[in-house]
Design brief:
Blueprint (H helix, E strand, L loop, with lengths): L1 H7 L9 H21 L11 H7 L13 H14 L19 H13 L10 H18 L6 E5 L2 H16 L4 H4 L6 E6 L5 H8 L7 E4 L9 H13 L3 E8 L11 H11 L2 E6 L23 E4 L12 E5 L2 H8 L28 H36 L3 E7 L2 E6 L9 H21 L5 E5 L2 E7 L7 H27 L1
Helix pairs in contact: 2-4, 5-13, 6-13, 7-9, 7-12, 13-15, 14-15
The protein binds pyridoxal-5'-phosphate.
Pyridoxal-5'-phosphate binds next to helix 7.
């Protein structure tokens, strides 16, 4: 039968033999293991310019017409990436909210790609869909949220928050907004001035527009001012607007502040509003005994966004949206076109979110949750918070540094030369410029990595420890480094100011 022969003898350039796969894979695993071993002693970044990076990878070369051997390509890619990347897995990486990847997660992603389950429909991913469902339940359990909630994995915190925002919009619009569009619906969402920029993107792409956001000021501890919130809701009702959503932060990005969740839940009940919690960074600190009190009331939320690629140490990407009532996810996303015939009575994730084909993001999280256990996470998150508090205390004791804030695992501070009066308004601009330059120099240097925040108008250095490799020693070594760079820059910058 010539036809069968033709199939058997097909040569597909992308296929490789099992032996070649083993050789290439083992070689790669050895290189990754060595990379992880050397990481603590390597620079976080080499601070290279875009042109240097492009030159290293020969950016201008055209797409090759012919193929190349798998082993060589993987080897070259590993060399390029290990030599020219910024490593958030380094023990002194404390920028943004970006975590070190758990080694088991690295391997989990490899396995997920091998099976290549399409987690859009249960029928296409029976085991993977059930693993995702269990992972969602376990995350809810860690937070103290009802484990019969709905939920799914998405790419990160932004998407998790947006999925919840759209669930709130469909549930509370009071008209068929999915069919008719937002039209003249004067829906209003309330959040503190400390809220992450996902809210602007959500208001924008959902059609409500950013004018629908009511920014509520924060108190001196960066938490939403509830009295102002109440007054604003009443005022909007008075003028015929339609409040539908309050967004509470459980861990703001700048300072780690947690809004008063219990009081916000009560207020939402009073006005029949959807309570969404942005817990992308902080909600998982609910497992840490020392911080648990901050999260009382979290279980009353209608939805929560969590980011497993932050405090669960999943490699990027993994965000998770939790919604109290799974029918409100269906209410926001489900359509049933005629070409879908998934008869099985089980969870079909394409019904619960915006994606259709979906990768298996849950596996790396599911593996890490079992490798570490609830107690292991409680310990690691507590350690991060403890290290951040230790950093704050060391900063406060250092006369050349000004401690500005400490919340969850975020500490902010700045460098102030000894002979300058930090209260003098004339030096305020100079201190902002000085610390901005200091941050740039620190980031390029590759010894420690911070990001920035604006605290009460002051340009601050910000250290966010979401890093299971950070030791107390790493924390202590930061301060002399900052002071050394600060002095150096002050020496260069002040003369130019004075003239
Ligand atoms: C990180 C973060 C986000 C955005 O999450 P991504 O994973 O970067 O998309 C939103 N809100 C808060 C509070 C965050 O910490």
């Amino acid at each position: 039968m010539p036809q069968a022969n033709a199939v058997i003898s097909r040569i597909s350039p992308v296929a490789i033999s099992p032996d070649e796969f083993r050789r290439a894979g083992h070689g790669l695993v050895d290189r990754v293991a060595e990379f992880l071993e050397l990481l603590p002693a390597s620079p976080i970044t080499r601070g290279e310019s875009p042109s240097a990076i492009r030159e290293a990878m020969d950016a201008a070369r055209p797409l090759p017409h012919e193929g190349a051997p798998t082993t060589d390509l993987l080897d070259r890619a590993a060399t390029l990436l290990f030599d020219h990347s910024l490593f958030n897995g380094h023990p002194r990486f404390w920028g943004y909210v970006t975590s070190s990847p758990a080694p088991i997660g690295i391997l989990g992603d490899f396995l997920a790609s091998a099976v290549n389950a399409n987690c859009g429909a249960w029928f296409l991913s029976p085991m993977a869909s059930e693993i995702e469902a269990q992972t969602v339940r376990w995350i809810a359990e860690m937070l103290g949220y009802p484990t019969d909630c709905g939920g799914l994995f998405v790419s990160g915190g932004n998407m998790a928050n947006m999925v919840c925002f759209l669930a709130a919009r469909a549930a509370k619009a009071g008209s068929d907004i999915r069919t008719r569009g937002v039209g003249g619906a004067r829906l209003r969402a309330y959040c503190s001035s400390e809220t992450h920029t996902w809210i602007q993107k959500a208001a924008d792409i959902s059609g409500l527009g950013t004018d629908s956001i009511r920014w509520i000021p924060a108190d001196e501890e960066f938490r939403m001012d509830i009295e102002v919130l109440r007054a604003r809701i009443l005022e909007d009702i008075e003028t015929g607007e339609k409040p539908f959503l309050v967004i509470a932060n459980a861990g703001t990005v700048s300072t780690g502040a947690v809004d008063p969740l219990g009081r916000l839940a009560a207020l939402c009940r009073e006005f029949d509003l959807w309570l969404h919690i942005d817990g992308a960074y902080g909600a998982l600190a609910a497992v840490a005994p020392d911080s648990a009190a901050l999260f009382v009331g979290l279980s009353e939320a209608d939805s929560i966004a969590v980011d497993p690629h932050k405090w669960l140490y999943a490699p990027l990407e993994a965000g998770c949206a939790l919604v109290r009532d799974v029918s409100s996810l269906r209410g926001a996303f489900a359509y049933h076109p005629p070409y879908y015939h998934f008869g099985v009575e089980a969870i079909n994730y394409f019904d619960l979110g915006p994606q259709n084909s979906r990768g298996f993001r849950a596996l790396k999280v599911w593996l890490a949750l079992q490798q570490v256990g609830r107690d292991g996470y409680a310990q690691m998150i507590s350690d991060d918070i403890r290290h951040s508090r230790a950093m704050y205390e060391c900063v406060a004791e250092n006369p050349e540094l000004e401690a500005l804030s400490q919340g969850l695992s975020i500490t902010t501070f700045r460098y102030v030369p000894l002979d300058l009066d930090r209260m003098d308004s004339n030096v305020a601009n100079y201190l902002n410029d000085l610390n901005r330059e200091l941050l740039t120099r620190l980031q390029r240097g590759g010894e420690a990595y911070l990001s920035n925040a604006i605290i009460g108008g002051k340009y601050a250095l910000r250290a966010c420890i979401v890093n299971f490799r950070t030791t107390l020693q790493d924390v202590k070594e930061l301060l002399p480094l900052v002071v050394r760079l600060g002095k150096e820059l002050d020496g260069e910058m002040r003369p130019t100011i004075r003239t």
